[in-house]
Amino acid sequence: MSHYNLETKCLHSGYTPKKGEPCALPIYQSTTFKYDTTDEMGQLFDLKAEGYFYTRLQNPTNDAVAAKIADLEGGVAGLLTSSGQAANFYAIFNICEAGDHVVAASTIYGGTFNLLGVTLKKLGIDCTFVDTDASAEEIAAAFKPNTKVLFAETIANPALVILDIEKFAKVAHEHEVPLIVDNTFATPINCRPFEWGADIVTHSTTKYMDGHAVQVGGAIIDSGNFDWEAYGHKYHGLTEPDESYHGVVYTKQFGKKAYITKATTQLMRDLGSIPSPENCFLLNLGLETLPLRVERHCENAQKVAEFLNAHEKVSRVIYAGLPGDKYHDLAQKYMDDGRTCGVISFELTGGRDAAVRFMDSLKLANIATHVAASKTMVLHPASHTHRQMNDEQLREAGVSPGMIRLSVGIESSKDIINDLSNALENA
Ligand SMILES: Cc1ncc(COP(=O)(O)O)c(C=O)c1O
What we know:
Blueprint: H1 6-12, H2 38-45, H3 60-73, E1 77-81, H4 84-93, E2 101-105, H5 110-122, E3 126-130, H6 136-140, E4 147-153, H7 165-174, E5 179-182, H8 187-190, E6 200-204, E7 218-222, H9 236-239, H10 250-254, H11 258-271, H12 277-288, H13 290-309, E8 314-318, H14 328-334, E9 343-348, H15 351-361, E10 366-367, E11 377-379, H16 391-396, E12 403-407, H17 413-426
Parallel strand pairs: 2-3, 2-4, 4-5, 5-6, 10-11
Antiparallel strand pairs: 1-7, 6-7, 8-9, 9-12, 11-12
């Protein structure tokens, strides 16, 4: 499908029905797959033949959706996971082990920050966080001889910092490590990080890809561009025999698909965070309309950001679609038509109390911890995600007491703005 445009790929990639087969992607709700001879199934266990035998390792519904996302990102292979957290964990753990080190942008989703700063540390993998806006030299200074990965988000959640992908890719490659980019907020509709030098992309498909807030999921896509063999001493898990799989050497046997094959056969086999085929079916439905929804999210968010920016009770709006925003130029460079996402942060002049009054006066927007769903959702970090912090700690974390995170949905922009306008009256 590589010659088609994104809108067409969203509908047709990953599954092409043959004569008499269903037009909709079938749900293979089966744990196991039948074979006629002992040897036929033995060949699958040896990774010598392609085929399905157990859904923890592979399932036709899941594979079709992984192939679609890989095609959208311009990658060679993909793997779906049961959550975005699992996707980021697998993406890093597939090439890191105890004694290794990761460099990561500091403005990343809190869950990933904890994964890198706390949980991976317990497994012996250390992380140094760098300011996403730091110079190439400053980022380079964080590298150590045992650094195996550079990690960042295209649009950081919730800081809405836009990544200078080329700068990060250059530093990563100068240090002979891959750049992994979490592309959840931009989605491949707005940005394809491989086109700017990223090597591996991850997603929380729970967000815009699903779009309807019905299932949690994740994805890992490999560009196939990183030359693991050139740095085989670092990535020996890919370039040396895997004793847990009959001595297979992933780079030799699977070439550009080595990284995803290892993640599937080793990590999925041992850790098992697979999504259910039914969830993959739902994700596929979301993907079919992704371009329409993303366009509408961004169009609505732009109007809402402009409305808030002009409002007397709003002291600051963070949205890269606004010409005055610090990340406007980077958005213009990396995002198609400069479109970023539907998430906006803004601060109320009246501080914490005004923010609570505002939230409680909303009629249409849902108060929810989720973002990037079709319905408009809103969250007050000081009352919710950052509730344990006092005002001074909040400021240190870059979150003011009067800050609101708004995920603009695809309702009529007039209704969203009316709702915000009425609530601001009470703020
Ligand atoms: C950018 C980003 N990456 C990863 C995650 C984790 O995804 P999930 O909630 O699907 O585990 C999130 C969740 O909000 C996110 O915003």
